[in-house]
Amino acid sequence: MFDELRDLYQEVILDHGKSPRNFRHLENATCLAHGNNPICGDMLMVYLMLDGDGRITDVAFQGEGCAISVASASMMTEILKGKTRDEAKRLYEGFHDMCTKDGFDLSGLGDFDEDAIDRLKMLSGVREFPIRVKCATLAWHTMQAAVDGEDNISTE
């Protein structure tokens, strides 16, 4: 069973890493931020388009990074479309906890799409490799910085 999960995890990471979704410049973004992981050199720009009610109508990213960093950004952009600022913040906090805390309780994210949560769980395996946590969470930190009106964020 563990080998099957590991293979699936690798397949998802490779798919999003090689063919990232929403990898583009978003014209007229209402929020954007630059994220940097100085340890490995990953750099991302996250663009968000929010409507008047604070709902994310479009999200995109550009940059360079390892397969985990790019895959995480790609998956994040798919999951965030249609979410509000508050929902994005809850997803960010939940994902960060998934990647950093043993025994994370998913009940706090129970009202979100089960498929989205399952995709995030794929990346939570980085918890076993602490140096990779920053790779997986860079896009999420950058998205949160953009929503909070910050221009730059660093994982250091």
Kindly summarize this structure in a few lines.
With 156 residues, the chain is α+β, with helices and mostly antiparallel strands.
Q: Could you describe the 3D structure shown?
A:
- This protein is α+β, with helices and mostly antiparallel strands.
- The chain has helices spanning 2-18, 67-80, 85-100, 114-123, 130-147; strands at residues 31-37, 42-50, 56-64, 152-154.
- The protein has a 4-stranded mixed β-sheet with strand order 3-2-1-4, covered by helices on one side.
- Helix 1 (2-18) packs across helix 2, helix 2 runs parallel beside helix 5 and helix 3 (85-100) packs antiparallel against helix 5.
Order of helices and strands: HEEEHHHHE
Stretches where pLDDT is under 50 for at least 5 consecutive residues are: none
Q: Architecture in CATH? A: Alpha-Beta Complex
Shape: globular
* Global Rg: 14 Å
| Biggest sheet strand line-up | 3-2-1-4
Number of domains: 1
* Total beta strand runs: 4
- What count of helical segments does DSSP give? 5
Q: How would you state the average pLDDT, rounded?
A: 88
> Pairing-aware structural class of the strands and helices?
alpha+beta
Portion in strands: 15-25%
The CATH C-level name is Alpha Beta
- Name the helicity range: 40-55%
From the N-terminal CA to the C-terminal CA, the straight-line distance is: 36 Å
What is the CATH T-level topology? Sufe protein. Chain: A
Taking the sheet with the most strands, its summary is: 4 strands, mixed
